[in-house]
Amino acid sequence: MSGMFIYWDNSNIYHEAQRLAEEREQTPGARYLIRIHFENLLRLAHADRPLTKALAAGSVPPELRQLWNRLENQDVEVRLFNRGTRDRGEQETPDQWLQLRMLEDAFDYNGDTGTVALLTGDGAGYFDGRGFHRTLERIHKRSWRIEILSWRHACNRKMREWAEENGLFIALDDYYQAITFREPSRPGHVFAEARAQGSLDLSRRPTL
Asked: How far is CA 24 from the centre of its chain?
């Protein structure tokens, strides 16, 4: 089977894009205006290969609802969670949901495996036998091909090295202009000029 299975940890991808924005944009306040271009990032993940399943986990700010709807219109299953509390970090529940779905698919499609594209850099929990890295190792042992898409500065080093040895690591930095855009500032609070996303060039995007 050559189908793509995409698992997208939006909180990790978005917040780390904010960290990178001011450095790349060289514009004060860029971190508050940067946004992920969902359609281009989704296409970067599947790279025009047949898509069997795509799941995305994110949070519930109302201003993102329209963007999530656009993903759902492209047959992406979206699960939104309330932001974290003092006792439970924002990432815990979305991460666990994605990891559970990854493991379920690894068993449900047993013997008919494809390629997993995981969008996150979060490698926490490895030494406790849990987390995305451990989940990827378990799936890989069942003959799934693995691709990790993450920002260079944000990807857990051990998880990245494992991906480079056993699959692919795709640095989102190389596609920054195409997978991000900058919203206009609010009237009277101009931080930076708006910027549209660039065109997505997949000619140098490696695949398995």
From this structure: 19
Q: What's the N-to-C CA distance of the chain in angstroms?
A: 12
Q: What integer pLDDT is reported at residue 78 of this predicted model? A: 92
* 121-154 per-position pLDDT tens digit: 999 998 888 899 999 999 999 999 999 999 999 9
The residues with which 169 forms a beta bridge, in sequence order, are: 148
Instruction: Check pLDDT > 90 for residue 194.
Output: no
Per-residue pLDDT tens digits for 68-81: 787 888 889 999 88
Structure tokens at 56: 């995305």
Domain boundaries, the chain: 4-182
Find the helix packing angle between 92-108 and 131-141, rounded to 10°.
Answer: 0
Q: How far apart are CA 94 and CA 99, in angstroms?
A: 9
DSSP 57-113: EEE--GGGHHHHHHHHTTT-EEEEEPPP-SSS-TTHHHHHHHHHHHHHHHHHTTTS-
Topology of the domain comprising 4-182: Rossmann fold (3.40.50)
In the numeric block, which tokens belong to residue 188?
């009277």
Q: Which two tokens stand for residue 152?
A: 């260079």
Please tell me the pTM assigned to this model: 0.90
Cβ–Cβ under 8 Å, residues 151 and 24: no
